[in-house]
Amino acid sequence: MTDVLDLPTRRHEEWRWSRLDALPALAATPRGSAQDAAQHFIGLGGPQLVFVDGVLDEGASVPGRVSVEALDLVTDHPLGRHATGAGWSLTLDAEQAAEPIEIVHVASGGANHLPARIMLAEGAVASIVETYVGAGWSNRLTQIELARSARLMRSVRLLQASGFVSVRDEALVGKHANLVSIFLGAGGMDCRIDGAINVHGDTAFAEMGGALLTEREQHQECAVAVRHDAVGGKSRQVWRAVAKDKSAVSLAARVEVARAAQKTDGEQSLRGLLLDRTATVNLKPELEIFADDVKCAHGATVGELDARALFYLESRGIAPARARGLLTRAFVADALDWIDNETVRDAFAADAERWLEKAL
Questions:
Q1: What phi, psi does 135 have (nearest 5°)?
Q2: Which of 17, 86, 126, 306 has its CA 20 to 30 A from that of 270?
Q3: How high is the pLDDT of residue 84?
């Protein structure tokens, strides 16, 4: 089974912190009953889709502008290339706007693969919320193309109780276009979030970030590369990690600035919080700059809760446990506040709150 999957190993630098050895066994796990997806919709009033083990549940879905069709997406990503066949796609013509789209992915065991394509023409606007629940290996490949002045807000919450979720995003961001993708890993599964974002239009903007929360022996990681090929582009990568028990979070973020991409503004902020000293947070920020006139900054810190801040709160009569909770919540919110829809942002905050109530 390992040969069929052709999985990368830790000998490859970009997979040095990955833990993929459980995937063959997960793929061979028999499927069980799928849980009800309805409870996981936020309720934004727009199209709703349910995929059970990678297959559209037509009875539970209201597709709206989203179509399900055979997709032939080409990628060299070792996990993403397994996501072939029928998938979902969203195509908007110039100046069109879609109501917020909600997609719930339900896994019942085994492995499921699903491709997706998002294509927004000039000035088109879309907002997509995806939620992963259940158990097993859920593998996704999403290819995104934003034309001039198009805007896409993507919010993804990983809430599977167990198993593994692998997400591969590949995006092409055109002139004046805006792409924001925010992730929350607050389930009991392991995960790998991959991003390859090409800011190829002048004054385009791209952001990919979020918060990964782990406990017990979980392992969650992200590996994101943003490439700037045009003048005046901006990018932001804001990731927060909270690790408890013997769990591990690994964050790798890279910004590449081509010679022609003058006046690029790139920001990376990677921060890890250890709730126990047995936990691990790995951070790897990278800048590769060939242009002269750029403004790029990166920061990477790992530590425990600020003892001075805890002392200050406790001196004002706040119990130690509550003080720890307040500081940890503020730490996580720093990454989720970039979600522009208040209802979606509140739902993600509630997911993080449930995890923190259990962990603290």
A1: -150, 155
A2: 126
A3: 92
- What pLDDT, on a 0 to 100 scale, did the predictor assign at position 35? 92
User: Going along the chain, which residue ranges are E strands?
Assistant: 48-52, 55-56, 67-71, 85-92, 101-120, 125-146, 151-158, 164-173, 178-185, 190-199, 205-214, 219-228, 234-243, 248-257, 264-274, 280-289, 294-303
Which portions of the chain are predicted below pLDDT 50? 1-3
Residue 208 CB burial class (10 angstroms; 0-12, 13-18, ≥19): buried
Structure tokens belonging to residue 118: 């998002």
In whole angstroms, what separates CA 248 from the centre of its chain? Answer: 17
DSSP letter assigned to residue 45:
S
3-class DSSP assignment, residue 134: strand
Q: What is the predicted pLDDT for the residue at 193?
A: 98
Choose among 185, 64, 166: nearest CA to 115. Answer: 166
The per-residue pLDDT for 190 is 98
Structure-token pair, residue 187: 């389930």
C-alpha span between 350 and 348 (Å, rounded): 5
Burial tier of 273 (Cβ tally within 10 Å: 0-12, 13-18, 19+)? buried
Q: Report how far residue 35's alpha carbon sits from residue 50's, in angstroms, rounded to the nearest whole number.
A: 11
Question: In degrees to the nearest 10, what's the CA dihedral of 289, 253, 236, 96?
Answer: 110
- Residue 117: both structure tokens together: 């394509």
272-283: pLDDT as tens digits: 999 999 999 999
On the CB side of 132, how many CA atoms lie within 13 Å of its CA? 35
Cross-strand partners of 17: none
SS3 325: helix
**Per-residue confidence (pLDDT) for residue 74, from 0 to 100:** 96
Determine if the pTM surpasses 0.90: yes
